[in-house]
Structure formats: C-alpha cells, structure tokens
Amino acid sequence: MAKKVKISGRTVMNDGFIVGGYIMKKAKWKTIVDGYVRAVWVCPTCGSKVTVPPESYQDVGTPICDGGPNGDSGCEGDDMQYARTEILI
Ligand SMILES: [Zn+2]
Predict the structure, then answer these.
(1) Using an 8 Å Cβ cutoff, are 14 and 3 in contact?
(2) Which residue range(s) make up the domain with 57?
(3) How far does residue 59's CA lie from ligand 1's centre (Å)?
(4) pLDDT tens-digit series, residues 17-38
(5) pTM for this one?
(6) What domain count does the chain have?
C-alpha cells in the first residue's frame, strides 16, 4: 500500500506519485546537464553565500569562507554549510 512521505518539503507517495494541490503524477528520475544545476552554500558566521557546480564537492570538497564581505569576519577558512540545490529551468 502506498504511503505518503516528505521529500524536500514535497509530499510524495512511496510508489512515486507526487501529491500537490489537484495534481497527481508519477515521478521519474531524470538526468539534468550539470550546467543547469548549482548548489548554494552559506557561511554560518557571516552569511556569505557561494554557488558551486555539482562536481565541485568531488573536486575540492566543502566550500570555505573567504572571511565575509570585508574579509574580517573571523571566519576565513571555515567550512560553509549546504543550503539548497537550484536548477535552471
Ligand atoms: Zn564567513
């Protein structure tokens, strides 16, 4: 029996149906060109934000802060925190 589960804030039936308003459709995983996807990371200390492509985590790991707008927030070199993923549509 299908159960409702929450995935990234969306209600999804565990058999793959997305439930939203009056729309109910079968969800499918699709490949998206990397250039249309970016991850947003934020510094928890100064709030600086960076956007990086999907492969950057493999290549360089967790983004680090440059110290904020003036470079003097005391967080230079600190790990940033993942915020969200965005796609260009
Ligand atoms: Zn910072």
Answers:
(1) yes
(2) 34-87
(3) 21
(4) 666 655 566 677 889 899 999 9
(5) 0.69
(6) 2
